[in-house]
Structure formats: C-alpha cells, structure tokens
Amino acid sequence: MSETLTKDQLDTVLQEADLLKTPEQVDDAINQLAADLTERLQDTVPVVYTIMNGGLVLAGRLLPRLPFALEVGYMHATRYRGDVTGSTELQWQAPPSIPMTDRTVLILDDIFDEGHTLAAVVEACRQQGAKEVLTAVLVDKRHDRKTDELTVDYAGMEVEDRYVFGCGMDYRGFWRNLPGIYAVKGL
C-alpha cells in the first residue's frame, strides 16, 4: 500500500527537485524519435503497444507525429518474484489484445532503467509470433545495472542515475503529467 502524500509535500518535492530536461528538450527528443521511427517503420503497418502507466505520456505525444498506418494497443505487465530461487514471471495486468503474428511490434515506454520487465515483455511478444519487436523509450538512465537481455532500439535522451519523474515517470504515483524531467533532490 502506498503512503498518502499531501499536496504540500508533493509541491515541496517539485520545488526542491532539479530540472534535468526542459519541456523544449523533451519535445526535441520526441521529434527525433518520430523521425527515426518514421524512417524505420513507414513501409510497415506496425502494432504499437504502450506500456502502462509510464508510456502513456510518450505515446500521447509521439503517435500524432508518426505519419503512417499503425495499430495502437496498450499493455500493463509486472514481474513477480515469488520464490527463493529469484526466478521471475511476467504477470499481465492488461495483456496485449492485438494479434502480433508475423507483425512488426513497437513497444513504447517511459524509461529504460534496469530493463528486466521490458526484456520480459519483448520476449512475450516474440512468443506470440511477432516478426520483429522494437523498443522505444523517452529516457535511458545511465548506469551499469542494466540487464544483458535487452538493449533498447530507440531512446530519446539519457539522464543521470537519479530518481527521475515527469513525462510519464512518477514520484510515488504523482507528477507523471509534468512536461519536463526532474530529479528528486538528493536522490
């Protein structure tokens, strides 16, 4: 269960946060993603899946900039670590609903942090018969804890290894709606 934060506490977090990427920098990154994805996908009719909830803001801003036919869906998955061996199992909160067999699939998400869940989603799409699976994220966080299972295909920008929020990324469930990218003070 998440703790309840007051409006004053949330306002303080934002007021004290460091602005890492301005709204203009985010917009430029999304424009570049759109150009790169258009070049790569314009001759296909891909299925574009948004990972909820983080990928929602990126999808809402990116999709209108893609001038080619595509289908749009969403998915929400988490990984369950339920046993002592450390194995993980993908748990679908909202499974993919558009058939992927012999299709190009583009997965949109907010951030590539360690990448375990995104790698599991990509593998699940392959198992469902996708011809190819591409990934695009707004933010690639710089650190050495990433999974060896996946490298993202497209990243709008990099940020330092801090607790970031805004543009789909949240601070304890809040502030996904901010147009810039912020880092929590001291984290």
CATH class: Alpha Beta
The structural class is: alpha/beta
Report the CATH architecture. Answer: 3-Layer(aba) Sandwich
User: Which blocks of ≥5 consecutive residues have pLDDT under 50?
Assistant: 82-87
Radius of gyration, Cα only, in angstroms? 17 Å
Describe this protein's structure.
This protein has 187 residues and is α/β, with parallel strands linked by helices. The protein has one domain: Rossmann fold (3-Layer(aba) Sandwich). It has 4 helices and 9 strands; from the N terminus they run αβαβαβββαββββ. It has helices spanning 7-16, 23-41, 55-62, 116-127; strands at 18-21, 47-51, 71-80, 89-94, 104-112, 132-141, 154-159, 164-165, 181-183. The strands form 2 sheets. A 6-stranded mixed beta sheet has the order 4-3-2-5-6-7. Strands 1-9-8 form a 3-stranded antiparallel beta sheet. The model is unreliable at 82-87 (pLDDT under 50).
Please give a handful of descriptors for the protein shown.
Rossmann fold; single chain; alpha/beta; six-stranded mixed beta sheet; 26% helix; 187 residues
Explain the layout of strands and helices.
Layout: H1 7-16, E1 18-21, H2 23-41, E2 47-51, H3 55-62, E3 71-80, E4 89-94, E5 104-112, H4 116-127, E6 132-141, E7 154-159, E8 164-165, E9 181-183
Parallel strand pairs: 2-3, 2-5, 5-6, 6-7
Antiparallel strand pairs: 1-9, 3-4, 8-9
Question: How would you concisely characterize the structure shown here?
Answer:
The protein is an alpha/beta fold and 187 residues long. 26% of the residues lie in helices and 29% in strands.
